[in-house]
Design goal:
TIM Barrel; 15 helices; 2 domains; three-stranded antiparallel sheet; nine-stranded parallel sheet
Length: about 375
């Protein structure tokens, strides 16, 4: 299911191909986030035109709304949202983590209140696997507890022990009920503690999964701690399985994660900052609402081939954003999504050509946010 095609001799970066029943995914790759069954402000047609290979769906949010009765009525999430390519679904663990004031964690799972209407809900390991099976996930994630940044060793160790027990239950449910060729990934936890990261990775490999994610990153820790979480996990994961860091990151962070042996990424940043009028460029972020863009007749980025850059000026996009016209944030969202997907294409090309070390150095050094007037 996962084939390694090339390695970078100067780092742990690798070029691979992950095969699923709905198609192959060339890696390293970025997965646009479709939280509510759509990538915010981007049409599925545009995702196809951008060459998107896989998108991410959110187990918690889709369970809450529209609910599994609706999803089942439409024949699964792929049919519901008109997306025939692969789809990864998270387990709901991170969303439950974010509901700290509305949840209760027990051995069985997590009881919580819906953020929509306050209704009592429950997700446990078996429930999460059942929901993801109903959604029709091509890649499902085990249910885990995500400890908060800065938690002490004792809390992280207790949390990890629970997560590993849940992982065994997820694997057992999957093996008993699921035979559609989809894959299930384990999630390495352990907060910022190197010994716990190793313990988690080794225990998950012993259970046996189709791929492995590094979870509990980008939850408030420093960038250095984030990188160490991957460095403390990767050596204990099998080289012939895909690796995925969940919920990150900025463009240079992704390049650095590739250099540390990561194959898959997801992040809400491309569309989130677009809704605030900010675009990603080769040299950092560009705040289009600032006065520097007012009379600028050029595109967001020279040489970019996305629809927004081929047809519209910074001045026009700034006008749309200042006037709060929805098409403005849609165009910037389109550009940012293209930027992320194209960055991964460039990374893959550099790995194939044996020039990743040079690409990494140049890209990271040049990625400096430009100074703009307010």
């Amino acid at each position: 299911m996962f084939q390694l095609l090339a390695h970078d001799p100067s780092s742990k970066a690798r070029r691979g191909r992950l095969t699923t029943p709905r198609g192959a995914i060339e890696t390293p790759e970025f997965m646009p986030v479709g939280t509510q069954g759509s990538v915010k402000a981007v049409f599925a047609r545009d995702l196809h035109e951008l060459g998107t290979q896989i998108i991410l769906g959110n187990t918690y949010h889709l369970f809450i709304r529209p609910g599994l009765d609706v999803i089942n009525h439409f024949g699964g999430l792929h049919k519901f949202v008109s997306w025939e390519k692969p789809m990864l679904t998270d387990s709901g663990g991170f969303q439950v983590f974010s509901l700290a004031k509305l949840r209760k964690i027990t051995e069985e799972g997590v009881s919580f209140q819906s953020h929509v209407d306050g209704a009592a809900c429950f997700i446990g390991p078996e429930t999460s696997m059942e929901i993801q099976t109903a959604l029709g996930s091509d890649i499902a994630m085990v249910f885990d507890e995500c400890p908060h940044a800065g938690c002490g060793y004792d809390y992280a160790a207790t949390s990890l022990a629970l997560t590993l027990r849940w992982a065994k239950r997820c694997r057992a449910w999957w093996d008993e009920h699921h035979n559609l060729g989809a894959q299930v990934f384990g999630i390495v936890q352990g907060s910022t503690h190197a010994a716990l990261r190793r313990e988690s990775a080794e225990a998950l490999v012993q259970i046996g999964f189709d791929g492995y994610a590094v979870g509990g990153v980008s939850v408030g820790e420093s960038e250095a701690e984030m990188m160490r979480a991957v460095e403390n996990s990767e050596p204990f994961l099998p080289a012939d399985k895909p690796r995925y860091t969940m919920g990150l990151g900025t463009p240079p962070q992704m390049v650095e994660m590739v250099a540390r042996g990561v194959d898959l990424f997801d992040c809400v940043l491309p569309t989130r900052i677009a809704r605030n009028g900010t675009a990603f460029t080769e040299h950092g972020t560009l705040p289009l609402k600032n006065t520097a863009s007012k009379m600028n007749t050029g595109p967001i980025e020279e040489g970019c081939v996305c629809y927004a850059c081929r047809h519209f000026s910074q001045g026009y996009l700034r006008h749309l954003l200042k006037a709060e016209e929805l098409v403005g944030l849609m165009l910037v969202s389109l550009h940012n999504t293209h930027f992320y997907l194209n960055l991964m294409r460039r990374v893959r090309a550099a790995l194939e050509a044996g020039t990743f070390a040079e690409f990494r150095k140049t890209f990271v050094e040049n990625y400096v946010p430009p100074q703009r007037d307010a």
